[in-house]
Amino acid sequence: MRYLCFAFLIFLSIHWCEAQGDSKNMDLTFTDATRLEVLEKIEKSSGYRFYLVSQWLGQDRISGSYRNTSLAIILEDIFKDTVINYFILDNRTIILTRNTVVRDQLHPSFYEDTLTEREGPTEVNRPLSHVHFEEKQSEQGNIETVRIGKERKSIRSKTFTLSGYAREKATGKPIQNLAIIVKGGTLGVSTDNNGFYTIKLPVGVNLLQTQGIALETQEKRVIMYNNGQLDFSLGESVEQLDEVVVEVNRKRNVEKVVTGVVEIDIAEIKNIPLVLGERDILKTAITLPGISNAGEGAAGYNVRGGGTDQNLILLDNAVLYNPSHFFGIFSALNPFTTGGVTIYKGSIPAEYGGRLSSVFDITTKDANTQKFAGEASIGPVTSNLTLEMPIVKGKSGILLGGRSTYSNWILNSLDDESLQNSKASFFDIIAKYNDRIDEKNSISATAYYSRDAFSITSDSVFNYSNRLVSLKWGHRLNEKNSANVSLSNSEYGFGIDFEGDSNGNFDLGYRINETELKLNMLKLFGKSHRISYGLSSKLYLVDPGDIEPVGDQSIIEPLSLQREKGLESALFVSDNISVNKKLSFDIGLRYSLYFAMGESSQRIYEAGLPKSEGTLLEVQEFGNNEIIKTYGGPEGRLSGRYFLTPSFSVKASYNNTLQYIHTLSSNTTVSPLDTWKLSDINIEPQRANQVSLGLFKNLNDDAYELSLESYYKRSKNILDYKVGAQLLLNESIETEVLQGEGKAYGVELLLKKKDGRLNGWLGYTYSRSFIKLDSEFPEEQINNGEYFPANYDRPHDFSLVSNYKLTKRFSLSANFVYQTGRPFTFPIGTYFLDGAEYALFSERNKFRIPDFYRLDLSFNVEGNHKIKKFAHSFWNISVYNVLGRNNPFSVFFVTEDGSLQAYQSSIFAIPVPTITYNFRF
Amino acid sequence: MNSAINVLWEHPKYGKFVFALFWIFLILEGCTEPFSPEIPASEGLLVVDATITNELKNHQIFLSRSTQGEPEPLAESNAMVRIVDDNQQQFTFMEISPGTYESSIMFAAEPNRSYRLLITTSSGREYASTPLLLPQVTEIEDIYIERTTSQSGLNGVGIFVNSFDSTGNSIYYKYEYEETYRVIAPRWFPQELVITSENPLIVEEVGRVGQRVCYATQKSNNLILTNTSGVGEDRISDFNVRFLSNNNYIISHRYSILVKQFVLSRQVFEFYEKLQDFSGSESLFSESQPGFIVGNIAPQDGGNDQVVGIFDVSSVSEKRVFFNYSDFFPDEDLPPFAEDCPFKTRFAPEFGELASLIRQNLISFNSENEDRNPFANEGPWDVQPRVCGDCTALGTETIPDFWEE
Question: What ipTM, to 2 d.p.?
C-alpha cells in the first residue's frame, strides 16, 4: 500500500458525493494506535487498499471503537483533527489526500485541463499553484508545506483568511512589523503591535515568506483549504544583524499605496556612525530625502519645506513637544527602548491631523514577556540602561529605560571656577507595560519624562521638560472588525530662574498640556476594502507665561498671561481600496473642528489695519468654556498606486491639512524658549495643500529599491514675525506676528540596497521653500511682499549612508552629507547713528551661509554570539566630521567699540572620536 | 579655537543677559571666529539721525548714506532740511559741516505739539516723517556712584540712576552720557624739544609750563535703554548707565558724568530696541531674525527706497555728578595710565629720527642723555611717548565751565 499516490484533485471534488454513499459498514476497535496502524487494521479487515503517504499521518495515537459503523464515519473520525481527506474510489480503493500531491510526473497537457476546469463554474480548488510549487521546489529545495484548514465540499469561496501570530523563537515576544508576503504575487501584510496578522489568500498553494529585521527569513508553502491559523516562530538571523536596512518590507517600496512614507527601525541604524556615542533615530531620518533640519545642533525638523512646528511627533500616540536634548544635539528618544518610527511626509493617514507637514509616529518596543532581558551602553556623554521584565509569562511585561548625562559631574570636577558654576544635564526615563490579555484584547501603557537643565553663569538656571502618558486598548471584535481606544496626555514646559544681584530677580515659566481621546476602528470589507474610521478629541491648555519676583528686593511685577484653552476634534474615515491587482487607492477624509474657548480676554483690532496698540478697538471678555471662535474644515487624504510592471509602480497623492497650534520663535532655528500658541480670534489656523507624484522601482530581484518622488505644496497663514519681534511674555502677540503664504516644491531621489556585504542608501533632494509676507502696510511687509526663501530652504541635499561587512563580526560604515547653506540675512552695508556703526541688513534671507558637508566613519565590532555567554556586546568606534570641516551653523554681527564685526560659529569644527560599549543580556 | 560657546539670551522686558555657557574638552568643540562675508555692491540708503528735544537750543540733524564698511559716515550734503509743527511753524536747518544740519534759530519742542521732519535731498528726492508728539518730561530723581562689580566680575564703580514718574506715562527711557575727566601726564617735565630751524636742522630744549593737566570729554556711543512696562510702577531704580573698571585711567584724577534721561515714544523706543538687539552679541543657539528696521521716515515722491533711522522727538532731563578715585578706593594705587610710561620706555633717537618724531608730535621730553653712546646711534636727549609727558594727547587744557572741585 505504500504507493506514491496520484491525486487528481479536480476529480476528487467532483466525485465526492457519489463516493460517500458507497461505503459499507464494519466493526473496528483500536487503542492508542497510530493512524497508520489503524488504517492497516482496516485494510486487513475490509479489503480496501489505502493509497497514501505515511508521513502525512504523523505519530499521534488515537483510540476508538466502532460497531457496524460505516467506513465513512470511521474515517471521518480518524481524520477529524487532521487535514487529511479520503476518497473512496471504488470497493477496493481509498485514496487519502492532503489536498495536494507531491508529484514528479505529469503530462503537460494535464495543466491545460486543470486550468480549464478552474475557469469553470464548479471550480472549488485551485491546483494552479502547482506550477508555482514546482518552480520553487527546484530552486529552494526544502520548504515546509503547511496545509491550512480542511477541505469542505460546501465551501465555494475563492479566498480564505489566514491569521496568526509571529513570535521570536527564543523569547516568545511578538514581532511587530514583520512582513509576510506572498512570493511571486503582490499580496502581503505586516504584523501589528501584538505580532498578529491576517491576510486573505487565494485557495491553493501560496508561498509565504517572512521578512523582518534581524530575523531569519522563513518560507512556508501554505495550502489554503479553509480559514485557519498559522503562527510563525522566528529565530534571530545572525547575518542580518549587521545590515543597514530602512524598510521592513521588500515589496513595500513599490507596493504601498500612500506616498512619502519613511520607516526606520532602530535595529537598522546600529552601525551608523554616532555623535558622542548616541544612536539617534531622528538624526538618521534627516539623511533621508525630504527631511532636514536647520543644521547641526538645531532642534526641530523640516519636512518637505515645512516649518519646524508643522510636525506631529507622537511617542506611543502621545505628542512629544520637544524631541531634543541639549539644543538638539541629542534626541530625547532613548535608542534602546525605541522600536521604530514611521514618518509620513506626503500623504498623512486620515486618523492623524493637526499639523501641516508630517507625522512622526514613534513606537516603543514591547517588553520581552518570556524572560528577563536588558541592554546597557556606556558612552562619553551619556549612559543608558534598559530592562525588560515579564510579569505574566508569555502575556505581559514591563520595559524600563533610563538615560542620563554625567556632564554635571565633569563640570564640577574642573578647576576653572567659571566652569564649576555651570551646569548642563539631561535625562529621560520611560516605562512601558504591555499585556496580551487574550486573543482579542491587548493593552499597553507608556509613561515618559525627560528633563534638561542648564545654568549659564551663576545667576540663571534654565530648564525644560516633557512628560507624557498614554494608554491603549486594542480589541478585536471579530475577524473583520477591530478597535483601538487610546487616551494620552502630554505636557511640555520650560522655566527660567534668574537670580543676579540686581533688583530684577525672577522666576519665569511656560507650560502646554494636552489630553486626547481617540477611537480608531478597522473594518475589513470583502477582499478589496480596508476601512478605518474613528474620532478623536483633544483638549489643549496653555499657560503662555508667568513671571514671579524672587526675593524682597525684586521689583518685577508678578505677571501671568491668561490661560489659553482649545478643543480640537476630528472625525475621520479612510478606505484602502484594491480596484484590481494593479490599481489601489487609499481615500481618506477627515473633518476637523477647533474651538478657541474662554475664559479669555480677546483684543479686537480695527479691520484692515495693522494690528497694533493704536488700532486696538476693544477687549472682549469670554466666560469659562465660552466659544470664542470656531475654525474647521474638511481635509482630504487621497493617494493611489498603479503597477506598471510587477516591480515598477507609479503613485500619486493629494493631501490637505489644518493646524491650529503654532510655534512662536524669534530665532531662525528652534530654541527651547519657543512657545506654542493656540489659534484665537486674531491668529488663524495654518492650512496647506500638497500634491505629489512618485515612481517606485525595485531592481535586481528586490535587492535595490529606487524611488523618485516630487511634490508641490502651498500653504496659508504661515506664522512669521516682524523684524526683531518680542515674543516671550507678550500679551498682545498678534501685534508681532505676520501670517503669510508658503510655497514649496521638490524632487526626492532615493536608492537603497538592503542586503549584501555592502548596503546602505543614497539620497538626493532638490527642493525649494518660499514664504510671502505681503500687506498694504510697509510695516507688515517683508521683502516688499514678494516670495523669499524660508530659513530652511536648502536646495541641494545629498546623503550617503553605507555599511560594509568585513566579516560577521566586523563592519565599517561611512556617512557623507552635503547640503546647500541655509539662507541668511546679511548686512550689505553699514550706517552710523549717534556715533555708532550698525549693520544695514539685506532683504530677508537674500544670501546663504557656506555649504555644509561632513564625513563620518565608524567601525563596529560585534561580540560573538555564543548562546551560553552572559551578554552580547557591541563596540562602536566612530569619528564624526572626519574632514574637520568647519561648517558654519550661524553667522552673526556684533557692533564692537562702535565698529561692526561679523562672526561665524560652528559646533563640531574638528573630528570628534567616540567609543561606545553596548551590551545586551 | 574656542571651546566656550557664548550664548546670548535676550529677554524682552527684563533686560539683556549675555551668558557664557561652557562646554568642555572635545565634546563640544564649538568654534566662533571672525568671518568676512562677500558683500555685493549696492546703492547707499539715506540715513537720518534726528532727535529734537524740549531743550532750548540749536538742534542738529545728521544726514548720511549707508556705506559698505567705510570707517567714517558718508555725509549727505546740500539737502534742504526743516521741521514743521502742527501749527505750521517751520524751523529750517542749515548745513554747518558736511552732513550736519543745525536749526537757524534756537527752539525747544513743546508739550502737546506734534512735529514732522521734511527732507529734500540735493538730487530732488523728498522724504518726510510721520508726525510725533513730545513725550512728557520726567526728571532724573537721583544719580549716584557706588563701588560695584560688573557682570563679568570686574571691580570698579557704577553710575546708577533713579527716576520716578508718578503719572506712569513715561515708561520708555533712553540714556546718554557725557563723561569728562582730568588727565595728568605722569612723567611731565618742564622742558620740551622744539625744531628751531629746518635748514640747518636745529633741535632745542626749551622750557614749558602747560601740557600737564588736561580735561577730556567723551560721549556714550552705545544704546542704553530701559523700560518700566513690566514692573508695577513707572520707577527706574538703581539703573546702571555706566560701569568704570578700577583699571580705567579716566577715573584717576577726578571724574564727572552728565547723564541725560530721554523719555521716548513707544515707536521710537522699539526702533532703538531692535537696533540694540541686532548689534548685540549673538550666540550659537539663538539668533533673532535680523532685517531692515523700519523707522518713521518714508519717501514722499512715490519712490520705494527705504530710509534708515528715525526722527525722534523726546523729552530730556539731565544731572551731573563728580567723584575722585580716592572717594571709592582710598588707599589703593591709581589705575594704570592710558599708556605704559615706566622709566625704561625712554629712548634716545639719533638726530634725524628725533626731528621726524617731533614733527609728527609723537614724543615728549624726558631727560638729557648723559651717558650717550654714539655707536648705538643715540641722540642727545632721552624721549618718551608723547602721552607720558603731554596731556594734550588725550584732552585739552581748558577747564570746562561746569567743572567743580
Answer: 0.73
